[in-house]
């Protein structure tokens, strides 16, 4: 006997349309109904036919995961191998949604508006990865298929977005040191003129510590910390510094490996580096897995004809372990 969508619907005691929504727009169905459908599908050995689903939709059955050309910048965090983990966590969030749907995911790198125009003919929806420049936003002008933008974006950005709040993350860093009793912290950052997230994190931190000592360096470069090590040592000895924060975990890790400090410390990103430091340091978790999971959910809802609004996934403070 051939197992069909109707077979699953009958066993789960739901309509065939509900089974379709579970696989094509899972967030439009309650958790209870989803569970019943998945259990029935597992019992019957059913899996959705991606090709048939795409033919019913009169589309390609494909979603595009789009990265952008970031070459030529003074600094881009994603170009460093030490940040590969972020991409993996983000994709895990995407997979958790796509894996329960009938959609297929393909990966693309876009450089020009012509690339984007050609891409929209090859897929039914676009999930963007790390749109952070106005030039990248401009690539979406005149795009006729549904798309979702993520993740370093202003609240005023046009289009459906799922974003992080870097300023709030800086506030979390400041609050952590304040709760530890710090009065005079040092904050290490870099490229705040060209990297919006760095500037926003610093702004948030300074809202808690307006008089904090701020030190700038070439974040990410091999000599970014060694070049300022004498300054750090001089500041620590003369400015009564009692806490340290950094724009990312890699920078904080580099400092603490060279200058073991007996004072509260907090980084940013909840990377594997923060796990290595254990309870010696806290970090701020962007929650990239949840962020891209939410972005994927919104894209599927758009494709099912529902209206969606932009949202923000707030970062959270973590201590002693890497985030999701």
From TrEMBL:
Q: Which SMART domains match?
A: HTH_LACI
Record bears the keyword Transcription: yes
- Pfam families assigned: LacI (PF00356)
Tell me yes or no: is Transcription regulation among this UniProt entry's keywords.
yes
Protein name according to UniProt: Transcriptional regulator, LacI family
Keywords associated with the record: DNA-binding, Transcription, Transcription regulation
HTH lacI-type domain mapped to chain residues: 8-57
InterPro entries for the chain: HTH_LacI, Lambda_DNA-bd_dom_sf, Peripla_BP_I
Instruction: Report the domain of life of the source organism.
Output: Bacteria
């Amino acid at each position: 006997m051939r197992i069909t969508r109707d077979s699953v619907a009958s066993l789960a005691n739901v309509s065939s349309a509900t089974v379709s929504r579970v696989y094509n727009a899972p967030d439009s169905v309650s958790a209870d109904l989803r569970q019943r459908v998945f259990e029935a599908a597992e019992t019957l050995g059913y899996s959705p036919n991606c090709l048939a689903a795409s033919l019913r939709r009169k589309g390609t059955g494909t979603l595009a995961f789009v990265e952008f050309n970031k070459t030529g910048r003074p600094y881009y965090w994603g170009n460093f191998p030490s940040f590969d983990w972020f991409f993996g966590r983000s994709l895990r969030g995407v997979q958790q949604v796509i894996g329960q749907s009938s959609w297929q995911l393909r990966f693309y790198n876009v450089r020009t508006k012509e690339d984007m125009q050609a891409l929209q003919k090859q897929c039914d929806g676009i999930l963007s990865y790390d749109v952070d420049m106005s030039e990248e936003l401009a690539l979406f002008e005149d795009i006729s298929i549904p798309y979702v933008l993520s993740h370093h974006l202003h609240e005023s950005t046009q289009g459906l977005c799922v974003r992080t709040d870097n300023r709030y993350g800086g506030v979390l860093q400041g609050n952590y040191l304040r709760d530890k009793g710090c009065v005079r912290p040092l904050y290490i950052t870099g490229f705040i003129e060209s990297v919006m997230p760095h500037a926003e994190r610093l702004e948030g931190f300074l809202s808690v510590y307006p008089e904090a000592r701020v030190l700038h360096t070439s974040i990410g470069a091999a000599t970014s910390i060694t070049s300022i090590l004498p300054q750090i040592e001089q500041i620590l000895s003369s400015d009564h510094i009692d806490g340290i924060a950094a724009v990312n975990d890699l920078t904080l890790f580099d400092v603490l490996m060279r200058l073991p400090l007996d004072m509260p410390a907090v980084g940013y990103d909840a990377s594997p580096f923060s796990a290595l430091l254990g309870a010696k340091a806290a970090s701020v978790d962007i929650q990239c897995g949840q962020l891209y999971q939410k972005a994927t959910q919104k894209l599927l809802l758009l494709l099912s004809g529902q209206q969606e609004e932009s949202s923000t996934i707030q970062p959270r403070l973590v201590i002693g372990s890497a985030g999701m």
